């Protein structure tokens, strides 16, 4: 494939115009390789968006973002070599388990929020946060991936107007447009959709067709299933995040300071068996939980000034 220093190992998946393979280099290290056919990127706009994806992704260096290893092309294809996340994705877990426990949701939300805080500090809006783009490494840690729709905000206060993303996760200001466009708060909305899906087991605005989903998002029409065992704290946090007015959504730091993260157990890690069955965290004491939460925030860079961390420019 492509260049001789990489050897094909196996197929990982495909979506849109890209196919992802497992490859290894001459040292035996394994990577994911995202391959895009040049025939599917013949328009100037498509080539430009691919260039944006590459420049944004390779500029980001965060413990909860899929590591961008390299890029090259040949006559027929573009190749991006990326960190291989060996435990699949949160979507894989969701398909197998449906609902996640609230302790799992706390850990994954801290990691996701840390990655988003880093991206936003570096002027990047992901615009397609969803379960299938949240990968899991060998230690079951979240890694945000797929920057195919990401945007770099070059000037302070600049707003985006392009309608893009995955419908079920799209903020109303993105889907229906807003007089002044949208910004980082669109990612925050997606975090709320993800949290709801983790603890409830289904998408909040799920409907039988596209028209129904749009109608429910426009009306902010979601509910918690009767009889579901979901804490008041997580219901309250979800309701704060899924606020139609983006200016009224909590900041990322306000999200992780919410009572949801302090009133229940927070694990230090998720066991691999959680891919198939809910783990038991009932033996985590309050002191341990507090220490775990502090550690998770530190590891996800939520307690440091990420704007001072040097990263390459997102610009060409």
Helix/strand layout:
Elements: E1 7-15, E2 18-24, E3 30-37, H1 44-59, E4 68-73, E5 77-83, H2 90-97, H3 102-121, E6 124-125, E7 134-136, E8 142-144, E9 151-152, H4 172-175, H5 185-200, H6 210-218, H7 232-241, H8 252-256, H9 286-299
Antiparallel strand pairs: 1-2, 2-3, 3-5, 4-5, 6-9, 7-8
Helix pairs in contact: 3-5, 3-9, 5-7
Describe the structure.
The structure is a single chain. The chain is an alpha+beta fold. The protein is built from 9 helices and 9 strands. It is globular. Mean pLDDT is 93; it is low at 306-316.
Keywords:
316 residues, alpha+beta, five-stranded antiparallel sheet, two-stranded antiparallel ribbon, 32% helix, 15% strand, globular
Label the overall shape: globular
Q: Please summarize the sheet with the most strands.
A: 5 strands, antiparallel
Percent range for β-strand residues: 5-15%
- Let me know the average pLDDT: 93
Strand arrangement across the biggest beta sheet: 1-2-3-5-4
Which percent bin holds the helix content?
A: 25-40%
**Spatial extent as radius of gyration:** 19 Å
Number of helices: 9
**Counted beta strands:** 9
Class per helix and strand makeup: alpha+beta
* Low-confidence region ranges: 306-316
